[in-house]
Amino acid sequence: MKSSYSTPLNKRYSSKEMSYLFSEEMKFRTWRKLWVALAECEKELGLNITKKQLEELKSNIYNINYEVAEDKEREIRHDVMSHVYAYGVQCPGAKGIIHLGATSCYVGDNTDLIIMREALKVVKKKLLNVINELSKFAIKYKELPTLGFTHLQPAQLTTVGKRATLWIQDLILDLENLDFIIERLRFRGVKGTTGTQASFMELFDGDEEKVKLLDKMVSIKMGFENEYMVTGQTYPRKIDSIILNTLSEIAQSAYKFSNDLRILQSIKEIEEPFEKKQVGSSAMAYKRNPMRSERISALARYIIINSLNPAITASTQWFERTLDDSANKRISVSEAFLALDGVLNLYINISSNMVVYEKVITSHVFNELPFMATENILMEAVKRGGDRQELHEKIRNYSMEAAKRIKQEGLNNDLIDRIIRDSSFNMSNEEILSLIDPIKFTGRASGQVDDFIQECVNPILQKNKKLLGIDVQINV
């Protein structure tokens, strides 16, 4: 048991993969890789840096002397310079060329961009797996009629599979935005203290072409095809806002799904997975609470609200940079990714194991369908010679009596039985029942599922098939 606070995002919700990306180890190893890349490119462009110095730096990328860095930071109150010092202790022959010409944001900002891009790729992989699971669910239940709801009131029928396509559609919109962000994300590169590259102009004796080339070379070496052409001291803080807005949009989609499922579970139509020994309530032993869906709702709410942090930070950066971004940024960005990772782990787990109670769904349909079917019955009765106004009035009266029976007496809906017993409709029991087959009231729902999955979803899944099929761990 730890004696100090430990974030539940790591302990309870996020995967090891995502947690590692925002770890100290990932950050400081990336800093050292950036210092090596800078030195390599500066050497290639003619600065007096030796092969031996580079080899010394490379050999110490992974064995970081954290205690030395931490002791130094307590003394000088500067994290980057503390790690420059610690790296130099391990690499005495190269200490003079570590961080040459750079400002702290060279390692800090570029590392953040590298980590966020890798984290976005993890998000994409998990988002695709949710889409894959929901698409299988949609196809399986594409023809199962269910009550549609508008204003949370029973409305025209849809199908269970068609409803799932609405969840998928939201996620595809999110995926499009996510792909755009990943493809367009750039590197800060090598820009100097206020973004003017003045220190590098000094190093290269005013050779502007070499300074421009250094910027491009380092970016490419670190895996980015493009860099931001102009910056202040930092990459534009608007980037953090754009990224967290994208995470918020995914959280919004998951939140909507979780709310839908919580309602469906409350009426016993569809449930999230419930393990054999899982306890629903400490007091009420019979309960099967939708705790995973509720957790999605809770974490999604946090992500949505958290997206305001980088928006305000981006708005209040003065001129080339102020440091009020740093403390907020290192919390808000990392926690947004960790929380969303937890959301997507839950979403994959639920969507791949949802339990559908078809008899309950059908029962609910037939409790409401008689009211919906009366127009069809009326039209058929008129075709057979009935008086529309007279029959309409009868249906209205029967409907009121059936509604009273349901609401005030707690009995079943006997509207169809009342109509069957009335000979003025001139239809047999079988003929009337044939008019209220639920599938006849679902329109193109089944066909829409087929079209949507084939034309919209499958091409995406096929394009990204290498990312499909992952196991997620739900810790609690």
- The tally of structural domains comes to 3
SS-based class: mainly alpha
The CATH superfamily of the largest domain is known as Fumarase/aspartase (Central domain)
Overall outline: elongated
The count of β-strands is 4
Strand proportion, as a percent range, falls in under 5%
Helicity level: 55-70%
Strand/helix succession: HHHHHHHEEHHHHEHHHEHHHHH
- Total DSSP helices: 19
Low-pLDDT parts are: 276-287
Gyration radius from CA atoms, angstroms: 31 Å
General description of the model:
With 476 residues, the chain is mainly α. It has three domains: 8-97, Fumarase/aspartase (N-terminal domain) (Fumarase C, Chain B, domain 1, Orthogonal Bundle), CATH 1.10.275; 104-188 and 231-356, Fumarase/aspartase (Central domain) (Fumarase C, Chain A, domain 2, Up-down Bundle); 360-441, Fumarase/aspartase (C-terminal domain) (Ribonucleotide Reductase Protein R1, domain 1). The protein has 19 helices and four strands. The chain has a two-stranded antiparallel ribbon with strand order 1-2. A two-stranded antiparallel ribbon has the order 3-4. Strand 1 and strand 2 form a beta hairpin. Helix 3 packs antiparallel against helix 10 and helix 8 (160-184) packs parallel to helix 19. The two termini are 17 Å apart. Mean pLDDT is 93; it is low at 276-287.
